[in-house]
Amino acid sequence: MKRVLRFTITSRNLSSLLGFRFSQNKNISTCPPALKLSSTSTAGYRARTRTRTRTRTRFGAMSASGNSTPVNENDEQVVQDFKQLNAVNDRYGGVIVEVSEPMDSALFASILRASIAQWRHQGKKGVWIKLPIQHVNLVEAAVKEGFWYHHAEPNYLMLAYWIPEGTHTLPANASHRVGIGAFVMNEKREVLVVQESTGRFRGLGVWKFPTGVVNEGEDLCTAAVREVKEETAVDTKFIEVLAFRQSHKSFFEKSDIFFLCLLEPLSFQIQMQESEIEAAKWMPFEEYAAQPFVQKYELSKYIVDICLAKKNGNYSGFSPVPTSSVFSDENSYMYFNICDLNVK
Prior knowledge:
The protein is of the alpha+beta class. It contains eight helices and 20 strands. The protein has a five-stranded antiparallel sheet. It has a five-stranded mixed sheet with strand order 8-9-10-12-11. Strand 11 and strand 12 (156-162) form a beta hairpin. The relative contact order is 0.09.
C-alpha cells in the first residue's frame, strides 16, 4: 500500500533540503539522477514542482525501475522521481542502511539528505550506515551530513547518526577485549608454562601460563582449549573458570576482562609454537610460584593462591552449563558454581 504524506514548502527550502536546484527555465529542473539499487522494493518519493507559486512534495513508494526523467506537463508543472536510501527498521526506532552498489559521492549526499528528512518525518531516531570498504568514497559525504564513526571491521565501516534533538542514546562500540589464562597441572603437580618470544615478557625469562584472546563468536571454554593447543600442542579438557579480572585502557584505550581457567591435560608431550613461544615445559608448581615476577605483584600472588586452593579441594570455580535464552536461537554457556546447586 502506498502511503502519501502532503505538506507545502517553498522552492528555495526544497533546494536546501533535497540537495538539488531549480533552473530559471520553468520547464527544466536540475537534480540528481535516480539511484540504482539492488532491491526492487526501494522506498522513495516524488517531488512535484509548481513553478508559478509553490512546491508540493509527495512521498510514496516506488520500485527501483521507476522513471526518473523530468516530464513537462501542459500546466507548466515539472515532475521528478528519485530514490530514497533503502533501509530496514531496527528494534529501537531507528533504521539500518547497507550500501551495496557504487555511486557518486555527490549523488549519495543528496539522497542521504532526502532520506534523513523522510526518516525525521517518520519519527525515526538512530541511523546506521554500513559502508563496505569498496565504497570508501562515500565516507566524507556522510560525515559532512553529521554522521560519526561507530566502529570498523576489516571489510566495512559503520557510521551512526542521531535524528532527534538532544543527546543520543545509541549503544557505544564494543568496550572490552576478552582474554584467558590456562592453569594446567598434571598428576606430578607440575604446571604447564611458557616463555613468550613477543610482547611485554619477551626476553625477561618469565615463565607464565598459556594465555590468549577469545575470538569473535568463540566460547570462552573453547578459546582456552585452543590457546593451550596452539602454544604447546597439549590437548586439554576445560573444567572451570576460577576467577576473572577487569582492567581499563589496556588495548587501544579499550578495557580488558581476563579469565583464569582450569584445564585438565589429556596429553603431555610439548611442541611449542615457534612463532610466539620461546620455550615451554612442565614446571613444579612451587618453582613457578617462587619466581620474583610472581611474588612482586598482587595479581600473580592471588592467581597462585586460587590455583593452589583449587588443587587442595578448598575452592569452587564456575563450570560452563549450556543454556537457552530469548537472546539467541543457539545455546550459550552460563558459568556458575554447579557444586552448591547440585547441577549434574
